[in-house]
Sequence to fold (110 residues):
Amino acid sequence: MGTDEKEISLRAFLRSLPSTAVWMLLACIAVWIMLVWWEPNPPPFWIILVAWPAFTISLGPLIWLRYDRDSHTPGWWPAVALALVWGVLVSPLLLALVYGTAAALFDIGR
Fold:
């Protein structure tokens, strides 16, 4: 594909992953703040920090395509379809893995 900064490739996504991960962390913290503000029994902050990598891995490619790449870039629509399928298939698996790990480490959910 070349060295275009707006190309759609795994290498281009991995180069921009640090900035995508930071934005996903800020979104998770914002959701937690809203839960603390409105919910009578909000979740602890560590749950947000544990769920953040799962959301970044599962939804990161879709967020990256939507906000960092132009929709007129060749291959954008197939990449969006692949990112949607990736997110739908990977999100439940990662969240189950995160919950199982947290349940084993912190003796919750029993």
